[in-house]
Design brief:
single chain; 457 residues; mainly beta; Jelly Rolls; 2 domains; 7-stranded antiparallel beta sheet; 34% strand; binds 2-(3,6-dihydroxyphenyl)acetic acid; binds fe (ii) ion; oxidoreductase
């Protein structure tokens, strides 16, 4: 059976392929054929274009979708400012950029009734959302589904990396499920609502009561990319296959709210140039009956990543693990790369196999989805994160260095963890709440203490 025809555990159907010109209709006949904007759209729907790139960008970068919806998005009352909660946006000016190595434990559990939007907490970032450069790193911890409200970011696309608990993303273009080990991308401007998946199978945390008050929170990471949309990296000499395969990216099929929700007042929260703005519509904007285009949400299962590496000697640079890249104006210099450290074999001969000691002009934020990471013996925990800013010295902690320097070099499978990195060309400035957080680990530098002098002249 083709992947397209196969339904997921949640009964969801997907369209497959990265960057495709997809099309989908929830009601037969809703999608016009041969034109985008007929004089009267079928079934009394309104046609609307959603542009994620300038009209004139080259085809390879051009992103837009045509939506056929029950009400046009233009029919809405004025937006007014609401509290930004713990969301922050570039430019990040609360504190100076810090050259120190920083590491955090997971976010504390949120108050009961915290949904995905309320649970977003910005760690730091760079660039300027209004200039459409740079990125923000957010974490989230949520124990309730969003009800009667939807969210969108005009500032950037949202790459959501669940670490605990599954998410059901009800987007304008349809439904996506993302569980730990999968990532989801919501394009700039697309409205969506996040429900917590209440299964006991993913992490054993769900209790199925619905109100979320007695369940462990869903947690994860979000990269809000203000820059050019993520794309698949070029493969160069790797060849035509390898790393993330385009066919493994899954987009939703068209789906709109059930009748009881379609005409309910719905709060639409829009993140715009760093602030949250709210308007209560007299209907839900998740009312798209058909669509076609390239500006689409998607999910990707990180376990499908085809991990390549050295089969002779030395530890390759982690660019070989790039899942998605947001290019900047300089070739090869990413605004942000999304990199995954997935299970793999290490076979390098006469090689120090874990990540090497290094100082990098790029800035590295790392998170852990499960298990452990091969550069850190302890302290880097699922739901936590580390920041190794531009040129800061880091690498294996002392325990890892000692162990790997003495290890017998037989083929070894690393299969006890799933880590990732947001790597960016600009230094990352922490927010005040991140720099002052209770869950910031004091004394992170100590992991590199005790590395002895062995050289004697
Ligand atoms: O710092 C890190 O752990 C990330 C990283 C991993 C690796 O394998 C090589 C370089 C690098 O920055
Ligand atoms: Fe690094």
């Amino acid at each position: 059976m083709s992947e397209q025809a196969r339904k997921t555990a949640e009964g969801l159907e997907y369209l497959t392929g990265f960057g495709n010109e997809h099309s989908s209709e929830a009601v037969p006949g809703a999608l016009p054929l041969g034109r985008n904007s007929p004089q009267r759209a079928a079934l009394g729907l309104y046609a609307e274009q959603l542009s994620g790139s300038a009209f004139t960008e080259p085809r390879t970068h051009n992103r837009r979708s045509w939506l056929y919806r029950i009400r046009p998005s233009a029919a809405h009352p004025p937006f007014t400012r609401i509290d930004n909660g713990a969301l922050r946006t570039g430019p990040f000016t609360e504190l100076p950029a810090d050259p120190n190595r920083l590491r955090w434990n997971p976010l504390p559990d949120p108050a009961p009734g915290t949904d995905f939007l309320a649970g977003l907490w910005t760690l730091g970032g760079n660039g300027d959302a209004a200039q459409r450069t740079g990125m923000a790193i957010h974490l989230y911890a949520a124990n309730a589904s969003m009800t009667d409200r939807v969210f969108s970011s005009s500032d950037g696309e949202l790459l959501i990396v669940p670490e605990r608990g599954g998410l059901l993303l009800r987007t304008e273009l349809g439904l996506l499920a993302a569980r730990p080990g999968e990532v989801a991308l919501i394009p700039r401007g697309v409205r969506f609502r996040v429900e917590l998946l209440d299964t006991d199978t993913d992490t054993g945390t769900g209790t199925g009561t619905g109100d979320g008050s007695d369940r462990a929170p869903a947690r994860g990471y979000v990269c809000e990319n203000y820059g050019q949309p993520f794309e698949l990296p070029n493969l160069g000499p790797i060849g035509a296959n390898g790393l993330a395969a385009a066919r493994d990216f899954r987009a939703p099929v068209a789906a709109y709210e059930t009748p009881d929700l379609l005409d309910r007042p719905t709060e639409v929260v829009n993140k715009f140039c760093g602030n949250l703005w709210s308007a209560t519509y007299d209907h839900s904007p998740l009312d798209v009956v058909a669509w076609h285009g390239t500006h689409v949400p998607y999910v990707y299962d990180l376990r499908r990543f085809n991990v390549l590496g050295s089969i002779s000697y030395d530890h390759p640079d982690p660019s070989i693990f790039t899942v998605l890249t947001s290019p900047s104006d300089t070739p090869g210099l990413a605004g942000v790369d999304f990199v995954v450290f997935a299970p793999r074999w290490l076979v390098g001969e006469d090689t120090f196999r874990p990540p090497y000691f290094h100082r990098n002009v790029m800035s590295e934020y790392m998170g852990l989805i499960e298990g452990a990471y091969d550069a850190k013996a302890e302290g880097f925990v699922p739901g936590g994160g580390s920041l190794h800013n531009m040129m800061s010295a880091h690498g294996p902690d002392r325990e890892t260095f000692d162990r790997a320097s003495a290890a017998e070099l037989k083929p070894q499978k690393i299969d006890d963890g799933l880590a990732f990195m947001f790597e960016t060309r600009w230094p990352i400035t922490a927010t005040a709440q991140a720099a002052g957080a209770e869950h910031l680990q004091r004394g992170y530098d100590d992991v590199w203490q005790g590395l002895q002098r062995h050289f004697r002249a």
